Structure formats: C-alpha cells, structure tokens
Amino acid sequence: MAVINRGFGARRRESTPELPPGQYLTQDFPVLSAGPTPNIHPGEWRFTVTGSTGERTSWNWDEMLALGVEEVHTDIHCVTRWSKLGTTWRGVPVERFLDGIGDAGDHIMASSSGGYTTNMPLEDLVDGRAWIAFEFDGAPLEAEHGGPARLLVPHLYFWKSAKWVNGLTFMDGDSPGFWEQNGYHLYGDPWREQRYWD
Amino acid sequence: MRGYVDGNALAGALSELLTPTTDAGTGRCATCGADAVLAEAHVWSSAMGHVARCRGCDDVLAVIVQHDDRVRMRLHGLEGFALVERDAAGSGRDAAAMSAAPGSVEA
Amino acid sequence: MSWRVGTVIEVRPETPNARTLVLDVPDWPGNAAGQHLDLRLTAPDGYQAARSYSIATSGGPGSPVELAVDEVDDGEVSPYLVQDVVVGDQLELRGPVGRWFLWRETQTEPAQLIGGGSGCVPLMAMARAHATSGSTAPMRMLYSARAPRFVFYRDELDALARSDAFDLTLNYTREAPDGWPTAPARLTRESLERAVIPAAEGPSVYVCGPTPFVESVADLLVGLGHPASLVKTERFGGA
Fold first, then answer.
1. Scanning every residue of chain A, which has its alpha carbon at the shortest distance from the alpha carbon of C88?
2. Looking at the domain assignment, is residue C171 inside a domain?
3. Which residues does chain C have within 8 Å of residue B21's beta carbon, measured at their own beta carbons?
4. Which of A41, A156, B54, C172 could staple C176 via S-S, CB 3.0–4.6 A?
C-alpha cells in the first residue's frame, strides 16, 4: 500500500464528472517525447498513404490543404492521466486522404518522422473521427507538439495522435506500434480506461 | 521534462528486473554497431516511459515502461547486452551476458 | 530493489529556490558517494509521480540520507518537496541506485568534480566522503552557478577548501559578487583549463548538471585532452 502524500497534486485541478475515469484536468499542454523533435518545413512535408499491396499515394503541404480544412473543437486525454478540455485545432479529415483507396485493409499503422508508429482500426480514422491537424489554438502547431502536422484522433488516448505524422499504412489485421509493443493497449479507449494490455 | 537525460536515469527502473544494477550495462547498437553503454545513452523520459537511444545514430536501444507494480523492458535495439560488475578501480568483468535475441523481460 | 519508506527528520534552506531534506530510512543499506535514489509521491486520488534525486551523503548501513531539491518552474514534484514537505512527512523511496557515477575512497588518482546548479549534489557527496576518509588524493571542485545566492553548501565548501587536498573554484554565469575578477559567463575552454586538474595528471572527472551543461563541458574536456573513458557524466532533467 503506497504512502499517501497529503497535499501532493494540489496544484492540479480536481477531477470533474466530464472526464474519463482516472483522469485529471490540466490547463497546461504537457510535452511527452520518445526522442528528439524533428525539424520539418512545410515545403518539405510529405504525407503518404500506402495500401495493403504497397501502392502509394502522396500529398505535399499545398495538396493537403486543397483537400479542405475543418475547425475542430475537442477534448484530449493522455494515458498519463491529464485531460485538456475544449482544445481547438484546424486540420484535414483523414477520410479525405482515403478516397479512392479501395478495399485496402481493416487496420492502419500511422508512422512519423523519427520512426514512431501507432496502430488503430480503419473505422476510427473515418466518419469525422480523425484529422491531420496543423493548427492548435489559432496558431501553427509547434514542433514540440508535433508540428508542422500531427494525426489527431481525440476519442482515443492521445499517444495514438501521432506527432510529426508522415503516413498511414493499411494492414490486414492489427499489429502493435511503438508504445503498444511496450505494453500500452492496442485500442486505447479512455472511457473504458484501456491504458495497458498486460 | 524537456530533452534527454542519460542512462543513469534507467537504473532505478531496471533494478526491479535485473541485478547488479544495469546502468553499467554494455552492448552494441543493433543499427549502427556503436558501443552502447546504457549509462551514456540518450534517455528520453516522460510519464509514458523511458526510451534509451544510441548516442551515435539515435535509434532506440531499449524501452522501459512502468505502471502499477509492473516494469516492462525491451532491449530490442541492443546486441550482445552484458552486465558489467565494476570494482572500485573501474575495471570490469562480465557478471552476466545475455543473448541478442530480441524479446521482452517482464516483472 | 523495492520501495522503502523514509521519514523527513530535518529540512533546511540551501538557496532561495532549493532546500535540503534529511531522511531517516530504517534498514538503509548505506550508499556510495554519487549514487541516487528514486522518490515516489502518491496523491490522495492515487495519482503517482516519481523522480530521481542524488544523495548528498554516503556511508555504511544506517547512514543519513540527505537530498537537496531545486524547485523547477512549472514542476510537478519539486515545488511539493521544496515548499510543502515538513518534518515528519513520509516519502517512498527506492535505492541506492547507480554503479557508474561513483567516487570511492580507495581511488588514489586525482579527482576533478564539475557541477552546474543542482548538479553539485552528488559531487558534494564525493567531497564529503573525500574529507571524512582523510584521502590525500587531490580533489578539485569547479562549481558553476547563476549567482552567489544560488550556490548550495557554500559555508561547508569554503571549510573543505581550507584543506590541502581539496580545492574549490566557483564560476558565476549571470551575476558575480562585487570585486569578482571576471565578468559572469558560462564555462569556456579557457576558464575550464584554468580551473581543472590537467589531463596529463590523469584525473577521474565527474560532470553533473543539466544536460546542455554536461554535454558542453564534456566536449570541452575531451578537447583539453581528457580521455572520454575518464570523464563520467550525469545529466539531470527537470520537474
């Protein structure tokens, strides 16, 4: 039984009923990184969707914007227990990158500059559930928060919202990405508190 | 926490799994072949876990995740991982050597 | 190695932002100079956070366990330890940890300690062990701090420096005392060369502090001829 340190954590806000179980509210936007922050200029940015037989389609920054940009208001939940409510983003819905890619697999591996990966079912990236986001809080997304563009999948724990995203690869069946290989849940629903799989 | 610290930060988490304490763990980076003393690795630590990266090529040497009473470690980026027992004069002799087979050690 | 419970038996200020905590830890096995421990705090709702802190003391079983904590802006744990913890509070800890960044009294070669800010804490354990053991191995400490009020252990370091076997050089990076011979500045190749034991004397070098400080000093040392195998580093993060 752990010693309880009374008064520790008092600098956090109290949990509110609108939060998933085990979460607390923060006004910060903590930076959690598994490696160095890449330095990517929008002029060099590429995003590639790879089908299950290896066929690729790519977009540069302007081609991405031309797919149509939406404003997103959402809450985000980190598996490390902080939640941030009422965040504002601008980005392109992921399904716009998937038009015309036929029956390509039921799961996706998202990959990032620097080698990070994370997996999720295809259905969690469509129907208005996910974006490639490049603005946060009215300003260009900062590099330490995943800029110039990151995946935004707010209904799952935020490690699934891959920073510095550079592609999606279709898979037949699920396969664990970086943190998932290290014990984190394959799906990651905050409302069912799916933090770990072991 | 910003940036990285060094592998001395791994010692506490690793102590749950292996003795002697493994901040004196050695091996080679599986990607670039550089000697990779864990204490000198670039360790990116956050509440998600500790990610030890090779000083030379930045590829991942090891990942340690702790939650509740579990510590999970993968040494998938290290070849020839060995724990070196150091005496006061700093010379080493192998206390234990582990094969290069990738896998996870769990406690 | 499992978690033990220590009780805070003394607190004392070190600088305007830092304080020393002395812990009584039943069955403490003792620790070598340079080792650290992990502290784990648990909030009433079960939320936990853990941080590593260097131990400023060393000795055999039952020896005192002294930490010095520097409060980091926006930190989660250090403000609690510096502002809120009182004598009698219990803290969970695990240790001692570390087999690499150590000084032992059996070492006879010269020892050069280089610390930035709170990086002085494990080096202080080494300086104290050196004094207690009566070691005649030459030991020098180069301690870089923002300003005189941010120097930890000042009086004790001045007392240690009265010994022939221990030498202290202070470097200030933002504000220096009146009459200080040099303008405040970060350590450079020149200032380092003036202060440290020459490479030709084969010192074991210990560098500790924030990551950018340690990386920069380690590079300068290698440039001055110190073999990398004799330069041991411990880099601190924050919070």
1. A5
2. yes
3. 97-99
4. C172
Q: Which of A154-168, B16-30, C82-96, C225-239 has the highest mean pLDDT?
A: A154-168
Query: Do residue C150 and residue C230 come from a single domain?
Result: yes
Q: What is the ipTM of this complex?
A: 0.83
What's the Cα-to-Cα distance from A178 to each of A131, A143, A159, B6, C200, rounded to whole Å? Answer: 20, 20, 10, 21, 46
> Which residues constitute the domain of residue B85?
5-100
B65 touches chain C (CB under 8 A): no
- C92·A3 Cβ contact <8 A: yes
Range of the domain at C79: 4-97
Q: Among B87, B102, B9, B97, which residue's Cα sits nearest to residue B50? A: B9
Listed residue (C73, B55, C119, B29) closest to A35, CA to CA: B55
State whether A32 and B72 contact (CB < 8 Å): no
H or E segment to which residue A96 belongs: helix A95-98
Q: What is the pLDDT of residues C138-165, one digit of tens each?
A: 999 999 999 999 999 999 999 999 999 9
Q: Would A17 be classed as within a structural domain?
A: no
Q: Are C70 and C78 in contact (CB under 8 A)?
A: yes
- Residue located via tokens 């060094």: B6
**Segments forming the whole domain that contains residue A156:** 46-192
Across the interface, whether the CB atoms of A5 and C79 are under 8 A apart is answered: no
